Amino acid sequence: NLNVNRKKRLKGCDTSFLSNKNGQENLMFEKFTEGAIKVIMLAQEEARRMGHNFVGTEQLLLGVIGQRHGIGGRALAQLNITLKKTRKEIEKYIGRGTGFVASEIPFTPRAKRVLEMSIHEGQDLGVNYVGTEHVLLSLINEADGIAMRTLDKLRVNIPKLRHLILTYIEEQQEDILKPPLTDQEKWALAREKSGL
């Protein structure tokens, strides 16, 4: 089972959101890649760090940035969006919480909607999974969310960000679809790299 295996690989992290109150698997997350699941776990950690009892779009944004190897994080890094700058901007906007944080942190209705819409983002792009890129695309489509307000405050050019995400997605798909190199092509590349 996908979620059971995922839970084993993510041992030691709060994966309670992968199950509902009855302990049954939450089917919403079955299409999420390990990277997208990591975004959610990082978002929960950010909520705890800020002393908040909820995970909002702003924490999801921090999770995307924190998952540096994902397409979403790489696109934001390309635009010089860092965790430090983004945290500072978010804290200016929403402040710090009381400090007491429950063990299970719920998503705000808007954050839930963003996660649900990320499934549709993936489907619209012709894939049957949700990666960090789909979470980020969904975040930038949620105009009233604190994540978008934060990106606006950081002067992010949203059309440029969207273009970067789609370019990275395209490059990734090309890499997957590329036929493997023949021995002759590998030899030619090695020779070219060595300057012969």
Number of helices: 10
What percentage of residues falls in helices of 4 or more residues?
A: 55-70%
Q: Overall mean pLDDT score?
A: 82
Largest sheet: none
Silhouette: elongated
Give the strand content.
under 5%
Poorly predicted segments: 6-14
Report the end-to-end length measured between terminal Cα atoms.
51 Å
Number of strands: 0
Class by SSE composition: mainly alpha
Order of helices and strands: HHHHHHHHHH
Report Rg. Answer: 19 Å
Write up this protein.
By secondary structure, the protein is mainly alpha-helical. Helices cover 62% and strands 0% of the residues. It is built from 10 helices and no strands. It has helices at residues 2-9, 34-50, 57-66, 71-78, 83-94, 109-124, 132-141, 146-153, 158-177, 183-194. Helix 2 (34-50) crosses helix 3, helix 3 runs antiparallel to helix 5 and helix 6 (109-124) packs across helix 7. It is elongated, with a radius of gyration of 19 Å. The relative contact order is 0.13. Residues 6-14 have low confidence and may be disordered.
Blueprint (SSEs and pairs):
Elements lengths: L1 H8 L24 H17 L6 H10 L4 H8 L4 H12 L14 H16 L7 H10 L4 H8 L4 H20 L5 H12 L2
Helix pairs in contact: 2-3, 3-5, 3-7, 3-8, 4-9, 5-8, 6-7
